[in-house]
Input
Amino acid sequence: MCGIVGVIGRGPVNQLLYDSLLLLQHRGQDAAGIATSQGNQFNMYKAHGLVRDVFRTRNMRSLPGTSGVGQVRYPTAGSSASEEEAQPFYVNAPFGIMFAHNGNLTNWRELRESLYRVDRRHINTNSDSEVLLNVLAHELQSSANGVSLDDDAIFRAVSAVHKRVRGAYAVVAQISGYGLLAFRDPNGIRPLCIGRMETDEGTEWMVASESVALEGSGFAFVRDVDPGEAVFIDLDGRFVSRQCAENPQLVPCIFEYVYFARPDSLIDGVSVYDARLRMGEYLADKVARNMRLGDIDVVMPIPDSSRPAAMQLAARLNLDYREGLIKNRYVGRTFIMPGQAVRRKSVRQKLNAIGMEFKGKNVLLVDDSIVRGTTSREIVDMARAAGANKVYFASAAPPVRFPNVYGIDMPTQSELIATGRSDEEIARAIGADSLIYQDLADMQQSVRDLNPKMSRFEASCFDGEYVTGDITAEYLARLGQSRAEPGQDEGASGLQFNMGYAANDA
Output
């Protein structure tokens, strides 16, 4: 999972891109990068770390230009720690493209082989994003006959990309001398939206993963990019779009609403916050059917993304709601961190229990989901150590039983606590007195209530159904093996370029 942004401005956009990435920081904490365009020259800086740590004044000064793209990176299984795999990526032929991608391709290995043998393009990393960039570059060259681009040529190229590529992808790409191209996969698995701002100098445009990046930067939300649609904004601010997929359908990743997206974002016509409130209502009904409400003294969220569901559950069941766990916001997400031992230690650094809220009480803890179970087990232990009499656990999402192949780092079933276990066995594994999971149909309905046009969701980690139709047991086995392969050593400094000129000092 990553966060991407692209801007066509009337003045310098480096600060605008930086601010937008800060608003998307929750989507990736591994690396950050910005590339800007000034005339026919690209300028780029990217490095490992949070946005606030990656960019210094000297880096920002080296990023002039009135258009550009940026990304915050969340690495998936098997990806390298090398900074060469941080984004944006760049190719200089045929037109010069700076490129940022959110998602994961399921046929990137076949595409890479085809690029080598047929398209004669060189891939320098193990990133599927670089593969996607080179597929786009090749199709742009073919559509333009190697001469120049117009709207039709650009949209033909995206249509060809859709025919070759499978998986989840939301893309922003700066084409040197032309403008900003953005497109979304034909299933709309990963989110992408458009914002607009009117200035004295003219119209500015932004395309980003979430609406919060638009609104927080002063842009008015216009709409989501449709599944399969491509949007092109030239350097003068002229906006054109076209449907480029043959059979587009909206099948968004439901985990965006459960966990990844910020609650103040609007994705495909649905308020993430309202969706989480609805999940709390449906979960409350199941708790009422399966537990004696008199046995519950207090409801507590596991901060932060479960808070709306926990509040709504408590209100619907007329139970007391308390904040019993306090979060240290300067520790990264345990969901992202590699290694069980590291995650276990991080939980204790990340959360602290308020003893008086637990002592002698029967506590219902509410979380957004349970993936590996490490965090849940540690929190149950914390609650008991703080004096809780009984510790019940409720998940606003169903059991996670299957790998996700569309950009979420849960690739092997052996890592998932729900694999091969009943709900009672999972409860024992995390140390809870009782465990209640949301039903899959109810979780989906909680989002559909807010946008009835959503007939399907990408919910493969819950139901094992992969919307792209190309996932086999052999594919999942290979994915599991790639997870076990060690990555490259992490570099200490960033990568900074001025394309066509000598690199600036970092």
User: Anything to note?
Assistant: The first strand starts at residue 3 and ends at 8. Residues 334-338, 486-493, 499-506 have pLDDT under 50 and may be disordered.
